[in-house]
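Worked example (supplementary).
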Amino acid sequence: MKMLLFIVAVAITVAAVALFIRGAFTLYRRISAGVPSPERLGPVGPRLGAMFAEILSHRRFTARPLVRIAHWVVMVSFVLLVPTLAIAYVQVLDPSAELPLVGGWVVWQWLLELFSVGGLIAIVTLFVVRLRHPSDPDDAASARDWRSRFFGSTRWQGYFVEAVIAAVLVCVLVMHTLRSAALARYPETAADGSWLHYPLTFWAGQLFWNSAPAVLEAGISTAAALKIIVSMVWLGVVGSAATMSVAWHRFLGVVNVYARRELDGRPALGAAAPMLVDGRPFDIRDIDDLDEDATFGIGSIDEFGWKGLLDFASCTECGRCQDLCPAWNTGKPLSPKLLTLSLRDQAAGGAHTADVFAALRSSGAQSADGATATLVPTVINPDVLWSCTTCGACTDQCPVDIEHVDHVINLRRHEVMVKSDFPEEFGSLYGNLDTKGNPWGLPPRQRVDWAKGLEFDVPVLGVDVESAAEVDYVLWVGCSGAYDEKGKKTTRAFAELLHLAGVSFAVLGEAETCCGDSARRTGNEATYQGLAVQNIETMAEFGVTKVVASCAHCLNTVGREYAQLGADYTVEHHTQVLNRLIREGRLTPVAPPEDERVSITYHDPCYLGRHNDETAAPRELLAAVNAAPVVEMEHHAKQSMCCGAGGGRMWAEESLGSRINAARMDEAVATGAATVATACPFCSIMLGDAASSRDDAPVVTDVAHLVLAGVKRGLNNPNPTAKEA
Amino acid sequence: MKILTCVKYVPDAGDEVGFESDFTLGRTGPSSKLSELDEYAVEQALRLRATIDGATVTVLSVGPAEAEVALRKALQMGADEAVLVSDEAIAGSDVFGTAAVLIAAAGYLDEVGLVMCGMSSTDAGIGALPALLAEALGWPLLSNAAEVSVEAGQARIVRSDEFGTRVVEAALPAVVSVTDQSGEPRYPSFKDVLAAKKKSVTTIGLAELGVEAALVGAGAARVQVTAVVRNPERAAGRVIVDVDGSSVDDIVEFLAAATK
Amino acid sequence: MGNVIVLVNATSDVVDAASAELLTTGAGLGSVVAVVPGGGSDALVADIAQYGAAEVHVVSCPQLSDSLVVAKAALLVERAAETHASIVLVASGLEGNEVAALVAAKLGAGLVTDAVAVRADDGELVVDKVVWAGKYTVTAKVVAPVAVLSMKANSCVAVVAPSQPEVRQAHFDFAAPAPTARVTSIEPAATSSRPKLVEANVVVSGGRGTDGDFAPVEALADALGGAVGASRAAVDAGFAPQPLQVGQTGKTVSPDLYVALGISGAIQHIAGMRTARQILAINSDPEAPIHRLADLSVVGDLKVIVPAVVARLG
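After joint prediction of all chains, the assembly is encoded as:
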């Protein structure tokens, strides 16, 4: 009987391992077919360090602490139990076999027991979490389940993987229980089978003290065999389904984290990845060297770098990205998860599981089932591609470091730069940017109009001052800050504050052009670089090194992306500078008297919070100005929800689903706050629009206005008691 | 068959472009470009090219050397070749002078089977050129088209104007002008921009065309500009704060004056 | 200055506003020969006599409806030659400008399209035209013996000056000298509907401030004979269909009068209407940017003010 079990176990193992090796080889071939990305392989040391730090800490699990702990326990138990699977083959024949070296070691046995029981509790927890987010794409032919992050994940695969883990852990615990009983019942071995060695299973083992030794041995053999069979069924199933990424993530996720874009632990946000042409970053200044057949962006699956293909193959289908996606949550067909799965399946030949296909169909992102040469529009519906606001919530949330935003931008680059196929509104945007240097097509000479009527002069570089060295900061006004009525008021308020604090600054005036954010994020890298190079040349002429911007997009583009073109500036956001000026005592805001104080909520601009890690400075400012912490919306800080303007969506109609800015305003209204402060002109415009269409909306304003009001209160009526901040 | 598309180099509406001392418009501003209304003509020419076997698109402009900018844009959009007629003697021409040059150029180029124009220029805004070209070439005029197609040597347009919507047809060769309702001009892809760098713009003068200088230019114009006055800038006007309907009289008065 | 040919729109039984203005303008320049192409009703001829014409030529022409502009132009050329006219006036428009161009070409005449004023000055004909998005007014004199002008609507006030014109019936057979285009189907402009947004001289637009009720916008547009427009915010909110959108991502309009009702005036919107000759804005928000460029700004409730204005306009 033992021998029979052993033969079955070995036979199934041989078959499973063969299948698994075949699957692994398929995946290796599939992923290594990607464009070479040598920069993702080294430096080995720092990469390994970053990989272990991230995986062991689970620090990319930024929300859901329960799931974070449960997953960590399951992960550790998986690693610990691998050696026990090896000894299980021996245990089928000899139930008393122990792992060499560590087998009877108390520490090892405690670890095993703790993580087996812990793992079982954890996997049941995760199972329950999955059950509590039910999703049935079949029922969703006309209505999709917004709330479930697992909507569109392949259900049987999730349940199967979790059931296998549970079954293996049960086998382990049964073996331990029977083994402790077999040892503890005889005085001569009682010590080895005591609770000291089997701290958790010993107590259950007492139930079997009266069982015959042969029964116990048979039980252990059977459990060991079952453990092997279950494990090998898993291995075989996984091996025959190379797109079963929920299972493969155990291996591929590790490599994906190793090959992550940022070595400092940040997600792949901030600067967009450079556009590679023949493996080298595109530079518009070398336009004459471009090969005639050069292609731009990504138009077919084989144009992805191997890290991209690894991204798709590693997706755990956990749906954290989908859960926070502003496009998905307002009824648009884009889900970052489904986009990833579409690309994963395309790399594998095009077939989807029933659940993925049903979700794609019911969300309006239906892709043809089957391989095609080009990605858009067949595999990726243009509505999916153009719905993305590049807010980065997906990438920030992803526990396996999938780089959604970069992929979207690369797909858009192909659409714009090769096919010239994009939402109609971008045509006039690009034309205006190309000819006028601003999105509205307004004359450059109006760029300094915002400063008219101020009580002090705003010097213009090259006109009033010769060099940036003569001033503390160059104030990057930005197109919204120069042309939009709301933006102009914010620029004025910030300039007044700098003036009051005795900080000298100058502007680039007519020589400033759009930073290029909207062009870049809609895939028009040529227009972006045209603008960027022009700005870089202008700033080089005046020796600019220190810049302050009141637009989160300008902050990101000038501060992080111009470096890709050789620039080197320190760019700060106006909330950061203001916060420092207050700390240094150069500005002293005074809170309103208690009876006039209203509650304030703060909307994090995506390009300040998620893309540039600044969530504290604006909150500190607001707390100082209002002598009370801000009331938070449901989604805030790194989990904040986009206003709807990012990724060039500012310039496009929002005709699909409901409006993102309205959904965000719902959250603001729910706080009961009288004021929504924000720190980006795009957010101000979008939220202002949303507020104007309802009666119960709070006032939308930039943080700078509140700081200025506070500082003016202090100047008009210095009242030390109100200086709580 | 060549589709000859006539385009104009104009200042951008936002530029501060003034008039020269001879009252001609300063055409070269910081963002002077291909007239937006002519982009529609280029777009329709390119779309027609795709439907006609062996068709190519030649863009033609009359203007200063800087007008190459406008032709370059058309090449980026996908035109096959570009011709610029540039000659000191042409400066100051009225619409008849410009028409004479374009007609000579149409004859100079071989195999022109279709002339395409925008509905009007964005600077002078005369809207007469297509009719004059058709008249002089002796070709049918299919003007101000909101839709245009060519099938089996027959051109067909849909035109909507003050007299209703009409379908008009004629056999090629013909002169077609298109409106801004005809379909959004394409934004050239970067691939197209790169491809256009390899194309050249041919510049010719009146001598090559055999046009007598006396027939063109300010001297030949039948209308002479005698004055140009800058109209007052748009500024905030009167503001009335109305809490009780008291503004109605003022509004009615304003509307009467504005619609007079 | 001799005979002035005025092309009268023959599509109705009364002289339309544009033709009446042409007759008045022509009467100020010389002896008016009103040309009614394609035959006109007695009522129309009688109405023409209200505006001081010396002669009325009712010219039948069987090819008129089949041909696009060329037959009409040839008809006018023939009339001009026969009457030795020195001036030909037509109404501005897509067709009017083309007819003017073709007549001028045939007569070797000076041509000004979209003129806003014309006067005889010391024996010379002097014409004003507004160019460059309304920024400049250009004055030009016609140095050819004959002038052909297309006149913008609303460039003068039609004056009733009854006369006893000589009425002539004539026939014109258009024999095309070269191949011409054929009109194969006609759908007359719907007379009841509003003018097209991009062509209208008056545009009344509604924004978010209408709160979804476009009735006041439409009522004012109809009272002014104008087109209805909308801001992006209003379109986004579903108050109006997208084809009515005025602004950067919608239509660009350049009417004589633009009325902005409940529109804040985001740059998006202003980009599409900043060349309007006159702007009236009614908005409850005194800070709305639209007030900074409107010729008349009313800070108040459009739902109260507009119906009152419409009632007054009758």
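Two points are worth noting when inspecting this output. The helical segments of chain B are 36-49, 68-77, 95-108, 129-137, 190-197, 206-209, 248-258. The CA atoms of residues 60 and 128 of chain B lie 17 Å apart.
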